[in-house]
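Protein in question kept underneath.
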Amino acid sequence: MESRRRSIAKAISYRIISSILTALIAWGLSGQMALGLKIGAVDAITKLLGYFLHERVWARIKWGTPKAPEYEI
């Protein structure tokens, strides 16, 4: 299982890239840079939390992960 710090770092880096793209799309569609930046900021905050929680839930699900050996030398 990965650490919480790693999950946070992954969530932040993913969110930065995705929110920039969202802001650029909103700006392109609306023609208003301020609106694009606001949408990008709200997107970043809400989805950062969502992604982090998603990662932590999946970290607890054992399905599809290799089982630890019962005994090691």
